[in-house]
Amino acid sequence: MKEFVDYFWGEKNGGFDVLYHNMKHGLVSSKELSDHIRERCQIEENYSRALTKLSKSAANSTSVGTFAPVWQILKNSSERLSGLHMDMVHKFQEIVKDIQKYSEEQHKKHKTMKDQESGTLEVVQSIQQTTQLVQKAKESYAARCLEYEKFKRDTGASPKDVEKAEVKFKKALDDYKSLLEKYTNVRNDFEKKMLVSCRNFQEVEIDHIRKMKSFIESYAKASENNHSLIQQVHVAFKQQSDEQTVEKLIDQFIQTKTTGVEKPGPLEFEEADLSNLPLASSPEQQEKQNSSHDSKLKEKGFLSRGKKDKKKEKKKKKKEVAAATAVEVDDKKRDSIAANDAGSEQNSVTSKDSKENSQTPPEVDEEGFTIRPDHAEHILSVSFQYQSCI
Question: Which of the chain's ends, N or C, has fewer CB atoms near its CB within 10 Å?
């Protein structure tokens, strides 16, 4: 296996920064893996609920007919699949809990690493700054050296200018050499600390990768085992469906819904039975039966004596009203023949008669209805006929 200590140097000395941020990305990766599995849990849970709903729908399907046994197979298969997917949800939830626990531990470990590698961070910053200073000192030295050589080769230059150029040259040279010496010391310190930091970062990363792979393996194993059980359910469903052949479904329907095996027999004509009818009665017997029937009616109160008396009184009143009406008609005829001078007398007599008639109350029957005078004789004749029959 390759080592970090061999691949994270470079001119800009940015290897430490790369390794530190890679360690921080591990915490993000664990969180994203937890979110991914949690979303998978939600999907499996929704699928389990959908299968449960489908199972209830199959249970509510028609339970009669030749296809009824197949609905029971569909119901059982959906219930088992729903239970398996819910088991998968529980397993995934356990994995999510483990990842969250690891994330908390990882966060604490990163804080420890940050404090532990703070010295390396300082020396990295120091060597980066020293490298920049050495580069500037080098450029300054090269410029002063070139200027000094120009004054030395220029015959027209004054000794004073040459001396100033020489002073600047020597100062640039001393600064350059001093920074090189400092860079050497910083570099040695950087190499020592960077070697240790690279090994520490690699150990942390190896542990992180192993832990993440263990989560993935648990996730894959749970999925594999669950899908294996799901496959068994599908195989069992196919086997049960194949067992329900057309002949078997027909036989089951006949066994549960049979109404009998005997066919209806022929029907023959039969004479009517008149043995229960009574014998024909003679006229004398018929008269006795009528008399006995009337006596029963009297016992029940239909023809009581009180009612007969009331009817007789009504008939008598009707006769009196009819007689009064006839007299009144005759009086009117005689009055019309009389002389005109007796008109006033006739009018007084007529008004008197009308007052007498108006004072006579109308006759009513026992139900409260008014009896008309022109029907009095008819009612009277009917009543006499009824009494004669009695």
Answer: N
Q: Which amino acid is at 172?
A: A
Return the structure tokens found at 276: 């229960």
Integer Cα distance of 230 and 51 in angstroms: 13
Check whether 169 has a pLDDT greater than 70. Answer: yes
- In one letter, which amino acid is 271? E
Structure tokens at 144: 């002063």
For residue 354, give both structure tokens. Answer: 């009308």
Report the alpha-carbon distance of residue 233 to residue 362 in Å, rounded: 100
The secondary structure of residue 47, as a DSSP letter, is H
pLDDT in tens, 41-72: 999 999 999 999 998 888 887 667 788 888 88
What per-residue confidence (pLDDT) applies to 346?
A: 46
Tell me the two tokens of residue 364: 């009513």
pLDDT tens profile 325-378: 665 656 655 656 554 444 444 444 344 444 444 445 556 566 655 655 554 455
**Which residue type is seen at 228?**
S
Would you list the DSSP string of 302-369? TT-HHHHHHHHHHHHHHHHHHHHHHHHHHHHHHHHHS-GGGHHHHHHHHHHHHHHHHHSPPPB-TTSP
* Selection from 307, 328, 320, 309 nearest residue 371 by Cα: 320
Instruction: Measure the CA–CA gap between 36 and 271, rounded to whole angstroms.
Output: 91
Check: CB of residue 193 under 8 Å from CB of residue 11.
Answer: no
Task: Tell me how far apart the alpha carbons of residues 324 and 356 are, in angstroms, rounded to a whole number.
Answer: 11
Residue 247's identity, in one-letter code, is E
DSSP secondary structure code for residue 364 in this structure = B
